[in-house]
Amino acid sequence: MKASGRPTAAVGSGTPSPSVSASPSASGSPSPSGASSPSRAASPSAGSGDTGSSATSGRKRSGTPAGGARTARWQPRPGLSWQWQLDGKLDTSVDVAVYDIDGVENSKATVDRLHRDGRKVVCYINVGAWEDFRPDKGAFPRSVLGDSNGWEGERWLDIRRRNVLRPIMAERMDMCRAKGFDAVEPDLVDGYANDTGFPLSAADQLAYNRMIADLAHDRGLAVGLKNDLDQIPQLLRHFDFAVNEECAKYDECEALSPFVKAGKAVFHVEYEVPNSEFCAQSRRLKLSSMSKKLELGAWRKPC
After folding, report:
1. Are the beta carbons of 33 and 13 closer than 8 angstroms?
2. Are 173 and 184 in contact (CB under 8 A)?
3. pLDDT in tens, 138-171
4. Closest CA to 95 of 52, 48, 26
């Protein structure tokens, strides 16, 4: 998905919002309604190379891609600095520990370059909505396409159809792994809280989100929970970090504390609230926070 067009629900507030994407230019921007969007955080100086500790990925699950033994996966710790760019020409010069970029729009050479500079790299993909500008758009049967999510060319997916969506999402995870990414940021994992055109339940969302986490882990990739604050208690053990949009705007940042207490990073961004109004809380909560413009270009203002 792209920063220029993809809804994301403002977690906890009950007000869904598009999260990113509408154009093929890598971008993960928030929803047109201003609902919550991914986040960044007050973290140590990014160029330090402190990109978090590794953690072994647990037992092997069925569906692990052929190729061999699973290796220890990256475990981002609280406080890491990060850059989130989903739109425009990628600026690889930002002195941060972590880059979160569009998985389709960026090449293995770009990921390799960021690695040479000491960065960890997160692969942004959409797992909750169909996008008419993605190369695999034809892999989705019409029966799983729901209502528009508020961004041009995007429609919610029927996440109850896990047997249909699993192989498609597995291919996307394979792409992230083949390009050398360290982790995945799966977007739109809170369809149940939105008007999708399908009668999705919280249980449907939990089952789907756990499937997504398993697909990432089976490939040795860390995986982040995007928004979906209400389900953190049930999903915390399945996800390695969190990405949040606008928790300060919606007064929800405290809800992310379980990740930090578990030693897992929370990458947080605000689009409208000035740094002077949220950075003190972010530092107290140990969130990796920054201000970004809605289109999620290169500009950033970290705490």
Report:
1. no
2. yes
3. 999 999 999 999 989 999 999 999 999 999 999 9
4. 48
